[in-house]
C-alpha cells in the first residue's frame, strides 16, 4: 500500500540559483540530486516536475566551483537516501573533493564500498548503519583517530591491521558479526597498538594478550 506522502514524492526538489551560500557553510547539506528527466520518463512521473532548462557545461562547472567542498573541515552527509546509481556517483564525486575534511559523518547511507576514496586529513569518521562487510571497503584515512563502524555487517577482523600505523585511538564495532568472535577484544588491541578505547570501553589489563608461554623440556636418564 502507498504511504500518505506518496503523492508528494519528488515535489520538494528545487535548485536555488543566484545565492552566495557555499557548500562548506552548510552544517548538513542535502547532496542527493533529484531524478533526471529520463528517469522520470521511465517511471512515468514526468508530470511531477516542471521541465528543466538546458544547463550548459559552463553553468555546471560554475555550480561545482561554488560548492567549495575542498575547504570543508567538518561535514555531515548522513541520511542522503541514495536510491539511484547516478545519485551515488554524485555522492562519491563530492567525497573525492574532501581533501581537507577532518570530521565526517556518513551515517545510514547504504554504503558498501568507499575503497577508492581518500580522505588525507580525516581524524574522525562515522559510518554507522551502512552495509560494509570488510575493513578493506573503507576509505583511505591515514590520519584517523576516531572511527565508528557500528551496525554494519563486518564479519571478521581481517584487514583491521591496515590501521596499525594510523593514530587510531577509539574504535566502535558494536552490532557487527565480528563482535562475537572468540577473544574479540584481545585480537583488536593486539592488531592496533595505538588503540585506547574499543566500543566505548577503555583498554583493560585482560584485553592484552598474555605473554607466550614456552615450555622447556630436559631429558633425564634413569639408571
UniProtKB/TrEMBL annotation:
Q: Which residues form a coiled coil?
A: none
Domain of life of the native organism? Eukaryota
Entry keyword set? Leucine-rich repeat, Repeat
InterPro entries (alphabetical): LRR_dom_sf (IPR032675)
Look up keyword Repeat and say if it applies.
Answer: yes
List, alphabetically, the PANTHER family matched.
GENE 29133-RELATED (PTHR18849:SF4), LEUCINE RICH REPEAT PROTEIN (PTHR18849)
Identify this protein by name: TILB protein
Whose protein is this, by species? Campylorhamphus procurvoides
| Upper lineage | Eukaryota, Metazoa, Chordata, Craniata, Vertebrata
